[in-house]
Amino acid sequence: MNLNQYQNEAMRTAIYPIDRGLDYAINGLTGEAGELSGAYAKAIRDDNGVITPSRKQHLLLELGDIMWMCAAVARELDTPLEVVAHMNLNKLESRQRRGTLNGNGDNR
């Protein structure tokens, strides 16, 4: 499955107000990222950072929710997810060529 296929299939399960779609998707993305972070924090707190098989499964499910929300944000921006992925790789490759992977700021 490629990213565009994933986006198309995932969006078949989308249920949110179309007139607030971008708001919903961006806020949902940050919420899901928080859930992933919280699940990992519990691994640090409870298991000294050890990722048990069940905890790994939980982290992967949360990561899947993040993917769904990324697909939704891209859809709301009328952009295929594969375009977003290519844009990101191009940005990172440019930074690598220019020796600016390290550092601060979006425009480095």
Descriptive account of the structure:
- The protein has 108 residues and is an all-alpha fold.
- Helices cover 72% and strands 0% of the residues.
- It contains four helices and no strands.
- It has helices at 3-11, 21-47, 53-76, 81-98.
- Helix 1 packs across helix 3 (53-76) and helix 2 runs antiparallel to helix 3 (53-76).
- The longest helix is centred in the N-terminal third of the chain and has 27 residues, at 21-47.
- It is globular, with a radius of gyration of 17 Å.
- The model has no long low-confidence stretch (mean pLDDT 95).
Radius of gyration equals 17 Å
Number of helices: 4
Total number of strands: 0
**Judging from the principal axes of the Cα atoms, what is the shape?**
globular
Proportion of strand residues: under 5%
**Average residue-wise pLDDT:** 95
Structural category: mainly alpha
Q: Which stretches are low in confidence, meaning pLDDT under 50 for 5 or more residues running?
A: none
Helix content: over 70%
Span between termini: 33 Å
Following the backbone from N to C, one meets helices and strands in this order, namely: HHHH
For the report, how would you describe the main beta sheet? none
Characteristic terms for this protein:
108 residues; mainly alpha; globular
Topology:
Layout: H1 3-11, H2 21-47, H3 53-76, H4 81-98
Helix pairs in contact: 1-3, 2-3
Short recap of the structure:
By secondary structure, this protein is an all-alpha fold.
